[in-house]
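Handout, page 2. Input:
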Amino acid sequence: MLIFLFYAERSIVNVNSVLIMIRKMFKKFCLLKKNIDNLTIDSLMECDFAKRAGEIIEMTILKWEARKKNQELLIPKKQLPKLEKSYYPRELQELLNLKTALCPSCKSPFTSLHLNTYCMITIPLSQRMKN
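Output:
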């Protein structure tokens, strides 16, 4: 429902606020933390919202013109490349959340070096990593 308003909006601030809202919804949907960077989110979404809005508006205009003239809509089908099915693995979610986590004791960025040096917390290797 935002596509028509997004396409007509000329204020950069409002356009950016819509893109921020879309990223927030994606993060909530994927159970990601709020502080994951935008480049990572954009690469996971694989969607250019501005381009998609332009395509939908163009298609809507063609449909409207065909209805006004009582004609059948003839739209050439685009040849889309075959994409492999992509999925969002749970491991990726955990890794992204760990990258952005904060230390439980001093609230600084969570790294194993920080935990070993400053907080005296050791992280044992799992059995998978040892083998």
